[in-house]
Amino acid sequence: MSKGAPTLEDVARVAGVSRATVSRVVNGTRNVDPELQETVRNAIEQTGYTPNRVARSLVTRRTGTVALVISGAGGGSDVFTDPFFGRVTAGVVDFLRLRSVHPVLMLADSDHARTEVVEFLRQGSADGALLVSTHPADPLPARLLQAGVPSVLYARPGRPMPISYVDLDHRAGGRMAADHLVAAGRYNIATISGPLDVLASQDRHAGFRDAMARHGFPYVPTAEGGFTAESGASAMQRLLVECPDVDGVFAANDLMAQAAVEVLRAHGLRVPDDVAVVGFDDSAPALASRPQLTTVRQPVEDMAAKMADLLLASLEEPGQRPRSAIFEPELVVRASA
Asked: Which CATH architecture has domain 65-167+301-326?
């Protein structure tokens, strides 16, 4: 090994690869085999090589960081306690860490915060944005687009625009829930929707109602929730008043479904004997519920990783057209229905 600070050549010699391969790993190039990346990283650790981040940024004009922006979630506490946001973060971090790219979490829950996000990115403090926007009227996607910031959204934008995104076939998920409840012999079925100004909620609700109509149920009692446990409990209370003979419930996320189960049990109703309950997401509350929830799985971690993949691809090949990736839901049958 050469005297002085370890070099790329030293790493290449220990790893048994070319200097160019080491450089590609250090610079976060996407198309490097993961096993080869691990070999190079082990050699970096063995040699004690420290990449010159300043020099690298001068060559690549990239910082090696991307912003994970949560917009419109209503504040930090909502983000850190909601299982959905935790799963998105896990999917992004696990994908980026293998590529030596670091996420910066930014909360954009006000107009001032959104302006700060745009300025942060416009100034080149991060290479691009992974945006989780919770409301279709959110102006941030359009502002990032206008600022020329490479961006990818989790969920399609509220209005058509040339920006990449990942999403789920939410209508198909709603249909799966309806088909399962009807196949289980339930005839007085109600639903707890998510907030109906959110596109995913609209699609889950529409898919569920369409499938119920195809099964001969033209009307489905609905109580709107807000994707929180509290709203799910309140919605279930309202449904019990409107349709006390309910024997099946589809809730548009697992937090609301878990809360619905607790309300039903408090009213002396057994799940699933008296009332079958189906949730959506296959998140931690589905397993924490008693009984555990039958639910429609949304592969959040995989979707978040794909979001990061699309962003890195756009950074490596600027000017390519926007891309979309639509994932398929899956019914996970457990004890609640």
From this structure: 3-Layer(aba) Sandwich (3.40)
